[in-house]
Amino acid sequence: MQYTPVLVVGGSLVGLSASLFLSWRGVPNIVIEKHEGSALHPRAMGFTERTMEYFAAVGLGERIPQVVPGTRLRRATVESLTGDWIRETEWTPGSGAPIPNDRVTPHTGAAVPQDTLEPILRARAIELGSQLAQGTELISFEQDADGVSVLVRNRGNGEVRAIRAAYLVAADGAASGIREGLGIAREGVGYLRTVDSVLFRCPGADRFLEHGIQQFEIEQAGVRAFLTSYGDGRWVLMRTDEQDLDERQLVPFIRACLGDDLGFEIITTGRWEMAGRIAAKYSDGRVFLAGDAAHQLPPTRGGFGANTGIDDAWNLAWKLAMVVDGASLPTLLETYDAERRPIGWLRHQQTFARPDYAKWLKGPMAPQTLLGDIAMELGQLHRSAAVIGAADDLPPAAHPSEWGGQPGVRAPYLEMTTPAGSLSTLDLVGRQFTLFAEGSRWIEAAARVSASSGVPLVAVHLGKDVHVNREEVRRKFGITSAGASLVRPDGIVGWRSGSGEPDAEAALGAALRDIAFLRHA
Fold first, then answer.
1. Over 70: is that where the pLDDT of 91 sits?
2. SS3 155
3. Is 411-516 assigned to CATH 3.40.50.300?
């Protein structure tokens, strides 16, 4: 029987991200994926600024092209692509006030087809030590107090083998057999519509992207559809008329949506459910749900589907690393559900409060204040026992410029300089615990706490190690010159002392012990 600390079931976008993040943190893992490669029909296309922060941290900053700074994603309602353009529609309808001018991240997001991104993730994961078994399917799994026993089958030669893992990450999609096997129910708006899509190649249509519109809602007599491009000559057309059209019948439909007789070639077709379903719990014993297995959401302009799953993987990876390493008690893993499930629900509610999806609801939903995409991606609040001091009156999400370094939110982005050059807070957080403070007593305390606990803790001496606008630091971190902010390995503020402590070492040691559920405190 082969042994691995973590087995990931599902080697698509979320499963590959989980494997990559685990390997980057030094956690050996195996990924099994029933298909030999990426799906022929790409799904996700837009990857957010936060997702790009993760990918940059693990060494993919130069491998994934990002959108040009200042590019604004745009959508229009048209009679056809080449016919009359009726009106431009808001990208996130009703999302509230304009975005403040504060620079909150150096990343711009990426517009990359999923079947282009997945090989990049796969290659990097293997570079870092991940074991990928493609063309391999799960037969059964059984967990006990000490681990999970799994049987898998090679779909090519039929060979069956056993794997024993300490933990299992289920990234096996919306129809997750693992979730069903555990008997975990789902809640939410449920099934709404069936969406049929056709992927086709039409390089001649790409010139219509020069106007700056990337997505087109087709409205003409007898035709309602959604058309968008993958930016590489491939286009996808989605419809909800529930007609069962074969390839011969699709040809005139595509032509009607294009308008002029542009040459095109059908590549493949697909069908998926427009639905909203959130798992009643994201974990069961040693098994953790991630991605669509945990939350089924339709594709939105904010990228809530794929990016939410990648966010799951980032949140879970550091916790598994701490537990597998023996530094933390397994109870740390209970904070995964506590933090991620409310965020899944927030995104569910935000998705179906937006006009483009609200129209499909079968009944009324409680009124929601629509939040902007940046607030959802970079300004979510995390609440759990691994966060100390998240006040009860804080909103579930807000634009980063509206936060002030409160525990539970992403560490603020700040640009800094050192004798070796420029960097930012993002370069200093994301792998280990990081302490930011101006006072030398905090820096000395951090060294002693790290040594006594055995947990890596990097202390950043503001004004000494790095040069930064101190007033900006104090405002964005919410601390005085005597205070300190402790950031978790996932870049979330875990604790802060606004104006200092009589015993810095005792306060910091207690905070680290509680946040990380340290086994030996």
1. no
2. coil
3. no
